[in-house]
Specification:
Two copies of one chain form a homodimer. By secondary structure, chain A is of the alpha+beta class. Chain A is built from six helices and five strands. The longest helix of chain A is centred in the middle third of the chain and has 13 residues. Chain A is globular. The first copy, chain A, binds a DNA duplex through helix 2 and helix 4.
DNA sequence: TTTGCTGCAAATCCTTTGCAGAGGT
DNA sequence: ACCTCTGCAAAGGATTTGCAGCAAA
């Protein structure tokens, strides 16, 4: 889970406008719990705004996830990365430069309220990824 | 972390051949801890097999990650998904149909051996995703 | 010998971007 | 008014795929 405040504080841009398109995209996304893809959001929104473009949907999803209004369910960039080490370990990824390093640790869960759908999953494993700024990018982003 | 055995057991195909290309891709990936992209693997491997094609690299990375020899660092498909709920919760994704459902739980870490690079990261948050088969896909994959 | 794998190139899919006009604030 | 945002369409980048020959088992 991204700490929203931290991220919002880090990335929120000034001068954002609440357009009809942006608002409806957010509303539609809040209505469902199906984690739609950009294209699916486009289809949902199109029912209310037939003339909206896919490009606008992409642009707004990007902005809304940067301000912390929604979450993007794909860590890092769109580039897949491969790890020659098949053994249990986690990763930390720099949101700025997309670099990934290994993180060795244990991780324990305590379940609050497992939804039925999840109870019926056959769970094979899990992936944990920390998100942050790598040493170089921290330095670059600090005021000199 | 994917339970390799489980995954390997689930997805390993019979009749795989250990070709020169497949072996060298695996060897090169085992040598580094830099989590290269497919294209970077291609460049690494090209030094030893100048005539290998990018397509072959992609095909083998896919196979090696399905048999559990390596890990692919991008959960689910290449399709990004969006979640209208910005609050702290995790997800479980079906490896078969790519469906995502919410998982509400707490998660605690105990650090073994934090690498220096990680210590110097500015950590903003984390993402946890369980991987498994959803109820429908479990059913489909069972012998009738 | 069988049939999985390869190189090549084209195709596909998802996402991003340039532009000129529209519309928040 | 200012300047962000939009629709459209084209571009871009990553990944996949069809095919005919090659090579593990």
């Amino acid at each position: 889970m991204i700490g929203e405040e931290a991220l919002a504080g880090l990335l929120k841009k000034p001068n954002l406008r609440m357009t009809r398109q942006r608002m409806i995209i957010l509303e539609e996304l809040r209505k469902v719990n199906t984690h739609p893809s950009a294209d699916e959001v486009y289809e949902m929104v199109r029912k209310r705004l037939p003339r909206i473009s896919l490009g606008t949907v992409y642009r707004n999803l990007e902005i809304l996830s940067k301000t912390g209004e929604i979450q993007k369910l794909e860590p890092g960039s769109s580039l897949k990365r491969f790890d020659g080490n098949p053994h249990e370990h986690y990763h930390i990824r720099c949101i700025q430069c997309d670099r990934v390093v290994d993180a060795h640790m244990k991780c324990a869960f305590s379940f609050d309220d497992v939804p039925n759908e999840m109870r019926d999953f056959k769970i094979i494993g899990h992936k944990l990824e920390f998100i942050g700024l790598c040493p170089e990018c921290v330095e670059d982003s600090l005021p000199a």
